[in-house]
Specification:
Blueprint lengths: L26 E7 L10 E4 L8 H17 L3 E2 L5 E21 L2 E2 L2 E2 L2 E21 L4 E11 L4 H16 L7
Helix pairs in contact: 1-2
Length: 176
């Protein structure tokens, strides 16, 4: 299966760092599926490794959300599952510029002079890559990626992780 180059960033999954708005982050989610993968044949899964690059809290959020999604599909966690799960995450500090215009008004037909204030706003951005490997065939059968600004608190981060992973895993086919 042809995959995009591996992204080593984490989508909305790590620490409670500042974001541009402090609210829920939106994520850009993409998935790739091996055309011949038989998802209906998989009954068990195991973790290849714990999420790489995540904080301990972020790792817990990710593992819990993925476990919930796979168990909703009827898959059982096992020591050597039909599917092996691997997650890679990372974050980066970013900046954006925000400008605010004030004043202005007008005198007759002439525009007034206003002021513009520009400030740099720091935020954290993350990406996450989730790979599912068919352990018998020893090949990747599915990849989900997500990237976006991280929310400003741990509680919001958990909600974002849950929503992103739910959206991502909804894209796994339910029929062969």
């Amino acid at each position: 299966m042809k995959f995009l180059p591996v992204l080593f960033f984490a989508a909305c999954a790590l620490s409670g760092c500042a974001s541009t708005g402090g609210g829920a982050a939106s994520a850009d989610i993409k998935t790739e599926i091996a055309p011949d993968a038989k998802f209906s044949a998989y009954k068990t899964y195991s973790w290849l490794t714990q999420p790489e690059g995540a904080t301990p809290e972020g790792s817990q959020f990710i593992v819990s959300a993925i476990d919930a999604q796979l168990q909703q599909r009827g898959w059982q966690k096992a020591a050597n599952g039909d599917i092996a799960v691997r997650v890679q995450v990372a974050t980066a500090n970013k900046q954006t510029l925000e400008s605010v215009y004030s004043g202005g008004g007008s005198v007759g037909m002439m525009p007034g002079v206003g002021t513009m204030t520009t400030r740099a706003v720091a935020y954290r951005e993350g990406s996450m890559v989730v790979d599912l490997f068919d352990t018998a065939a020893k090949r990747a059968v599915w990849r989900g990626t997500a990237s976006g600004a991280l929310p400003s608190s741990q509680e919001k981060t958990k909600d974002v992780v849950d929503n992103v992973i739910e959206d991502m895993f909804a894209r796994i086919p339910t029929t062969p």
